[in-house]
Amino acid sequence: MTGNEAVYRRVLRRETHASRTGPAVLVAVVLALVFLCGIVIGISAIVDPELRRIGATAANSAVTVLRESPPWLVPSGALLLALGMVLIALALLPGRRSRRARVGPRAGVLVDLSVLADAVADRVSARCGIERSQLDVTVTRWSTRVRVTPTSGVPIDESVVRETAHESLAEIGFATPIRVAVERKGVVA
Amino acid sequence: MNATNRFLNRALLLVIGCVLAAGGAALILAAMRPPWASELLGFGAHLLRRGESAIEGWTGGAFLSSDGTVPAVIALVALLILLALCIAFITTRGGGRSATVVRVDSTQGSTQIDRSIAEAVVAGQLRERADVLSASSASFRVRRAPALIISLRVRQRAELPRVLAAAERAMADWGQLAGSEVPIVVHLAGRTWRDRWRAATRVR
Fold it and tell me: Which of A17, A97, A185, B67 is the most exposed place for a label (fewest CB within 10 A)?
């Protein structure tokens, strides 16, 4: 098992973090198209001297226009800056996925947070006699929140709800602190 | 799960992000022209002029005094190299899947166990359960060794401890059959929008 721990850690880390392949491939495709256009223009410029002269004139005109600060300059700059910040954020942020993972005695276990939330809600509904539609469970990496909308006139024992939720997660090795919130307004049975 | 080099993904996003952000900031500064930006732009122009003089010095005056052919050829070669790198980057995403899960070499030959056997033994066993909507397996090479990922989608109100216990039994059966320990990851995946329309119980 110890020999495989490094493999489990690598696999589970990759499965719980976004790969950023989608945005990276999109950027690479756009860059490839830009480079391809540049190559076509470059070959044309080498073959045709007139095109080189037109290119030089266009470059000088562009510099002149930029010096006059046209109204579209700031919005264009802001758009580029925003796009750049988005790409930088994608690169630097960890991109954690909605999953939790652990290494078990026989295998690595990876569970989507929605599956954990459903399991908690189902167990609390069955044990505490609360309709499934009156339960709202949110599971994060660090905690679990159970929000209960009670039936009017039927008291809710928060400690039982908390204990049941904790048990359902602990049984599969993903125990977290549980917060229970009971809505002040109930629903009519 | 695949063998994509994620560091390269993020490095590309970071470099292009910085280039776009710098370009956008430069356009905004060029438009608004605050006093400190004028000094910065002046310094930038001074650096460009020094760069031009240095290149002229190295090439003996042949670079910029030509009719533009030399810079065009150099730019063309650079663009070709960059285009090739982009294509190489795109085509090397993904991959890492392996058809062989176990390979045992001996003096008399080698024995390989295909992924489909693991699929039948582990995923097939779990797929038969009433509380499992679907089960599939995939094998990858991780640190030059095979690893299996078993993905399960469970029905509504399925007891996760029972599903995990069944998965462990299936993995024990696989371990006895394969005769060697292959790292296995069990993934309990959430239901898709299509699964939400399925019944909570399975009728045979």
Answer: A185
B75 touches chain A (CB under 8 A): yes
CB A147 within 8 A of CB A183: yes
- Tokens for A161, please give them: 């709800």
Mention every residue, 6+ apart, whose C-beta is less than 8 A from residue A16. Answer: A96, A97, A99, A100, A101, A110
Q: Provide φ and ψ at B67, rounded to 5°.
A: -80, 20
Judge whether A119 and A148 are in contact, CB under 8 Å. no
For residues B58 and A174, which has the higher predicted lDDT (pLDDT)? A174
Listed as ranges, residues in chain B with pLDDT below 70 are 1-2, 55, 58-69, 193-204
**pLDDT 10s digits, A106-137:** 789 999 999 999 999 999 999 998 999 999 99
Q: How far is B109 from chain A (nearest CA, A)?
A: 26
Interface contact flag, B185 A28, Cβ < 8 Å: no
Interface test with B, best of A87, A116, A122 (most B CBs within 10 A): A87
- The answer to whether the CB of A98 falls within 8 A of the CB of A113 is yes
Q: Does B23 touch chain A (CB under 8 A)?
A: yes
> What's residue A3's pLDDT?
63
- In chain B the first and final C-alpha atoms are separated, in Å, by 34
Band (pLDDT 50/70/90 cuts) for residue A1 is very low
B185 and A66 within 8 Å at the Cβ level: the answer is no
Nearest to B187 by CA among B132, B125, B142, B113: B132
Inter-chain touch B8–A10, beta carbons under 8 Å: no
